[in-house]
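User: I'm writing a tutorial on reading structure tokens. Could you give me a worked example: one chain, its sequence, then its tokens, then a sentence or two explaining what the tokens reveal?
Assistant: Sure. Here is the example chain.
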Amino acid sequence: MSVVSQVILQADDELRYPTYGELQSIQDFFKTGEQRTRIAETLSTNEKKIVQEASKQLWRKRPDFIAPGGNAYGDKQRALCLRDYGWYLRLVTYGILAGDKEPIESIGIVGAREMYNALGVPVPGMAEAIRCLRDASLGLLNAEDAAEASPYFDFIIQAMS
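And here are its predicted structure tokens:
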């Protein structure tokens, strides 16, 4: 949920106008809007490139994942892994656009860990996969944008750890 939505909902719950501090937080949110939009555009435009690079990094670090018996062994399983990469990248862009990690948590993290456990997918391996996704993504951003985007990836990594 964006800062704007949070402020409005909280003020409405308390039947009051937004406070000066809340209005300042909205103003700060708007000031970073161009940067957040630029980051989301860069990540979404380069999704295929990012997913390819991240998967190469992961398979180099964890060749056991694509070896016989590994969770990403075979074309179908590998395609599912790459699909998940794109899904997590999209979640990160939602968080960046909102300026909040709540969309990542409510849309993607709640239940993801349990789903991977139920499917027998090693959750620590998913954390490693997201690290590779983060590194591939941040490599396309300037230092300031990378610093803004990194915590959203780190949030997922921590949730998977």
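What the tokens reveal: The chain has a mean pLDDT of 91. Residues 54 and 122 are 17 Å apart (CA to CA).
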